[in-house]
Design a protein that fits this description.
58% of the residues lie in helices and 14% in strands. It is of the alpha+beta class. Strands 2-1-4-3 form a 4-stranded antiparallel sheet. Helix 1 packs across helix 2 and helix 2 packs antiparallel against helix 6. It is globular and about 45 Å long.
Length: 114
């Protein structure tokens, strides 16, 4: 399943459903599809998402790499470091949506998704 976020002030942002729903939860909204955030609620949603991303930045990758090290004990340390460098975390996946929220806030408009 994909979720597409729409906003008059920005290009569409398409995400896999699980990532989109996780970001919606971080913003403090339910994950029902379709849905919308009214213009007056955009600043709070943006603040919530940025705070949540800052709280978890880097943490989930370190945890997953530790699990990988236990699952694959013969892998070299440099290979695990290379995986960490190339990993795409929720903090990076959230960037297009954060930019959309900022554009919506500036234009005083809503965001909807389906």
């Amino acid at each position: 399943m994909l979720i597409t976020f729409h906003c008059k002030a920005s290009h569409d942002v398409m995400m896999f459903g699980d990532i989109g729903k996780r970001l919606l939860t971080m913003m403090g909204h339910d994950t029902n599809t379709p849905g919308a955030i009214e213009a007056e609620d955009i600043p709070v949603a943006l603040d919530n998402l940025e705070k949540a991303i800052n709280d978890i930045k880097g943490h989930e990758f370190e945890k997953s790499l530790e699990e990988d090290a236990h699952d694959y004990p013969n892998d070299s340390e440099s290979e695990l470091n290379r995986e960490k460098e190339n990993a795409i975390g929720i903090d990076k996946r959230a960037l297009p949506l954060i930019e959309m929220l900022k554009a919506a806030k500036k234009a005083n408009t809503y965001i909807m998704w389906k």
